[in-house]
Specification:
Layout (H helix, E strand, L loop, with lengths): L13 H22 L2 H19 L7 H11 L1 H4 L20 H11 L5 H8 L3 H11 L10 H16 L3 H17 L12 H29 L24 H6 L4 H5 L9 H12 L19 H9 L3 H15 L3 H16 L2 H12 L3 H6 L4 H14 L4 H13 L2 H13 L5 H10 L5 H9 L2
Helix pairs in contact: 1-2, 1-5, 1-9, 2-3, 2-9, 3-6, 5-6, 5-7, 6-7, 13-16, 13-19, 19-21, 20-22, 21-23
């Protein structure tokens, strides 16, 4: 930055001046990437700055980030229709294919650097809605799994956009901040003219009198007229007819909130995904085959209507647990899904007493270790060593981090698990971000360099 930041005025808070100085680069790039038009971005920043600087003095500093980005997203130039065709820089062209909401959620994390709570507050939604928008914006492969390479490319391109911002754009930001700070905070109520308050109260009194007159005047007319005019006739209403059907059974099936789960070919192992992942890992280390029970002939195929009826009859807690397993299943690579399906076939072919013995053995594991097997047979084995790093992952990192872990070779996964054990709590977020921003080709060198620090 060529200048020294926004020029503080006597009325400007040093903290506010420093806040604007530190956020300028991100604000400019965020606005440009949100609308795809540098001129509209400049107009949006100029429109929101006076309001933010006017309000910030009366708000806690902890609320400044969410308020700043919320005002920027609400600025009319950023929401208005584009006068020219929006354009995005190379490496970020995928932003043009996103809707404004998912694009905002993605940029609030990639460019603004906000955590979950501040990002949700900036959008005016709850954290769950922000996570859903971020999931929609995350690049995916044809099989609906997260495309970790495309995600890393987005991270690198957004970082490059921040670093390559011309100095002339930063100087323009500093001048706009200086002008906004020079205006000072919004005038408080104590600075209003003395004559304004009596006028306002007089107006309120006039409104009250007028409202009372609307009730009193008709009453006097009725009292002065014919007494029969005040009579009211009463008659019972006819019995209500049964409600008309608003949709049929087919429409109810098509719009069922869990339809994708219920129609998926991979829905079979959902109930025991953690158990089957654990069993798949055990099978991989066993040479002798287990005793198999005779396979019975298949019965009548279950219809979708039957499956939906059985699903809706489950307790809410059980449906929630299966949805969690469904999400975990969606994140597994094809090879890991195949291993789980193979384990499911092996498990179902065991004798009942063998199945029960395996269930009891799995139930004796600590609950945290059992949950780790939802990550699949491969990551489930490494879960006890990875657990310190994966227990408190921000929502925006969960899917990309899981995809990156699945891409690690056995040796790389072992090295990364060793790093997870060595890394102190305050440095775990940085380690996760380094993994996500390191290309697949450079991960071995990065892991070796980290291990030998």
């Amino acid at each position: 930055m060529n200048g020294s930041g926004p020029v503080p005025t006597p009325a400007a808070s040093p903290a506010l001046t420093a806040f604007l100085r530190g956020i300028g680069r991100r604000a400019i790039v965020f606005a440009e990437l949100q609308c795809g038009d540098p001129e509209r971005a400049v107009a949006a920043l100029a429109a929101m700055l006076p309001r933010f600087t006017g309000e910030a003095g009366g708000q806690p500093m902890a609320q400044w980030p969410a308020r700043f980005w919320g005002l920027l997203l609400a600025a009319m130039p950023l929401r208005a229709a584009a006068a020219v065709e929006p354009r995005w820089p190379p490496g970020l062209a995928a932003l043009g294919g996103l809707g404004p909401g998912p694009r905002s959620a993605l940029l609030l994390w990639l460019v603004a650097g906000l955590e979950e709570d501040d990002a949700a507050a900036a959008l005016g939604v709850d954290a769950a809605t922000w996570r859903l928008a971020l999931q929609r914006a995350t690049p995916r492969r044809a099989d609906a799994t997260v495309d970790a390479d495309a995600w890393q490319a987005l991270v690198a391109a957004s970082r490059e956009a921040l670093q390559a911002l011309p100095d002339i754009r930063l100087a323009r930001w500093e001048r706009a901040c200086g002008a906004a700070l020079a205006r000072g905070p919004l005038a408080p109520a104590a600075n209003r003219p003395r004559w304004l308050l009596p006028v306002l109260w007089t107006g309120v009194a006039a409104c009250v009198v007028a409202l009372a007159a609307t009730f009193a005047w008709p009453a006097r007319e009725i009292a002065a007229g014919d007494a029969g005019a005040t009579r009211v006739r009463r008659a019972p209403l006819p019995a209500s007819a049964p409600p008309a059907a608003t949709f049929d059974a087919a429409f109810a099936l098509r719009t069922h909130p869990d339809l994708a789960l219920l129609t998926s070919a991979g829905a079979a192992p959902l109930r025991d995904l953690d158990l089957l992942s654990w069993h798949a890992a055990q099978v991989a280390t066993q040479a002798a085959p287990a005793t198999m029970a005779p396979v019975s002939a298949p019965g009548q195929p279950e219809t979708l209507q039957q499956r939906v009826a059985e699903w809706d009859a489950l307790p809410p807690a059980e449906r929630g647990a299966r949805r969690e397993r469904w999400q975990a299943w969606q994140g597994l690579p094809a090879a890991q899904r195949a291993a789980v399906l193979d384990a499911a076939a092996r498990f179902s072919a065991l004798l009942p007493e063998q199945q029960q013995a395996l269930r009891m053995q799995f139930a004796q594991l600590p609950s945290g270790e059992r949950r780790g097997w939802l990550l699949g047979p491969r990551l489930g084995v490494a879960w006890p060593r990875l657990q310190p790093l994966l227990m408190q992952v921000p929502a925006a990192q969960r899917e990309p981090l899981q995809a990156a872990l699945h891409e690690l070779s056995p040796l790389q996964l072992d090295d990364f698990a060793t790093l997870a054990q060595r890394t102190p709590p305050q440095e775990r977020d940085a380690l996760r971000r380094e993994l996500l921003t390191t290309s697949r080709a450079n991960r071995t060198a990065w892991l070796q360099e980290r291990l030998h620090r």
